[in-house]
């Protein structure tokens, strides 16, 4: 803990969980899409669903999807800005079984029809936890540089990925693996210390059995 | 005596400052530079930029037409400022100036404006109001006001380590109470008080707000949060004025903070940011909840308008 944990962050009000956290969920979805979104489908659960109008949770999510950070004064006007830029947004509410009270499912589509969907929760003080990407379980906080590696569940794949990282001197602080079925699609979520250039991600992308790899900078 | 660099007690921080013969702010800046492995100047610059964000809240926050996102609040800071600047205030330009500034920052927060959590968004008006009023009314240089934020932060860290800064854990005493104690400490230092006086100002500020519940109407950071920011800064000046007169708290600051933790633990969860009790549960509170969120609910959206949602 330091003085800026007490006097900070600089943020758009009114609520760190319902506004700042929501913006970060939007922004991490955009980072996963890797290109500007033309369509955003937002589904709100729990307290997000019940109080989003008063807290501006919808505006903050849209702002994040447009790449704004938690202290961007344009968050208030995000829905208008989205309309002006041709970003189509739908917002619906309902229940997601077992989800944290402040949870949103965000699905984005880019101009080429690429789509990404995630389940993100705002867990307090503006901190978030993404628990699902494209239907697969992950664990992403956005606090560290994170690699999301989609791959085939095959022997040696994890070893190959971590070997590339070891060669680059990367220290792993969190590793999670999730697969749909044996031999099927699987996803590694790897949070690492420090910051690394795109060449690390390039080396992982070309490994056998790896479909795609995305490197997220801290959000 | 070893310097208390863990922020585990107010007494430790005060003793270290007295031993070094320096203000608490100086001690904290020095220690933070070591801890964060940055130069004192760069940490000071970061704090100055936060202080300027606070200052930038006042004009938009006291705009006549400002309204919150929910539509429930806005315009109080404008009214208070009119009175403060017309010279007709009951208590004079000093206190009325602090009140309108606290309302301005807090109302700006409710309208999705840019603020500094100090220590939280719900209590973000108290410190800016205290320091900007000292700067304006007492001609204190900006640099001293920025430095006093380090003193305030040290108080916040001690409270975070021994009690809580979250309304959901400790009630409003943890948010507006902590902010008032932080502001009281900063004011005493700015007014030339000793670290010993700072310690008593912290104790008095928290004692006077002990037990305050967190009961936001409709779960929103508006009613009663905005007005509690005004009373929070007034309480900070009360504590500072008493301490500067040499008045001491019979109960030491660290025991008061310990008490705040015990009181928070004993508080019913309905009074800790759940919007299930207190003012949120009044007929008017429930009516305002319905006004903002509507009574008719889609199937599966489960809210009966009871206000029982976490904020």
Automatic annotation (TrEMBL), chain A:
The answer to whether keyword Translocase applies is no
Biological pathway: Carbohydrate biosynthesis; gluconeogenesis
Q: Which cofactor does it need?
A: [4Fe-4S] cluster
Protein keywords: 4Fe-4S, Gluconeogenesis, Iron, Iron-sulfur, Lyase, Metal-binding
Gene3D superfamilies from the xrefs? 3.30.70.260, D-3-phosphoglycerate dehydrogenase, domain 3 (3.30.1330.90)
Q: Where is the signal peptide?
A: none
In what residue span(s) does the ACT domain sit?
146-219
Name the PANTHER family on file: L-SERINE DEHYDRATASE (PTHR30182), L-SERINE DEHYDRATASE, BETA CHAIN-RELATED (PTHR30182:SF12)
Q: What is the official name of this protein in its record? A: L-serine deaminase
Source organism per UniProt: Enterocloster hominis (ex Hitch et al. 2024)
Q: Which gene encodes it?
A: sdaAB
UniProtKB/TrEMBL annotation, chain B:
The alphabetized UniProt keywords are:
4Fe-4S, Gluconeogenesis, Iron, Iron-sulfur, Lyase, Metal-binding
Protein name from the UniProt record: L-serine dehydratase
Q: Can you name the source organism?
A: Enterocloster hominis
The cofactor required is: [4Fe-4S] cluster
In which pathway does this enzyme or protein participate? Carbohydrate biosynthesis; gluconeogenesis
Please report which protein family the annotation says this sequence is part of. Answer: Belongs to the iron-sulfur dependent L-serine dehydratase family.
- In this chain the Serine dehydratase-like alpha subunit domain maps to 21-280
Q: Under which EC number(s) is this enzyme classified?
A: 4.3.1.17
Q: Which GO molecular function entries does the Swiss-Prot or TrEMBL record give?
A: L-serine ammonia-lyase activity
- The answer to whether the entry has keyword rRNA processing is no
The reaction(s) annotated as catalysed by this protein in its Swiss-Prot or TrEMBL entry are: L-serine = pyruvate + NH4(+)
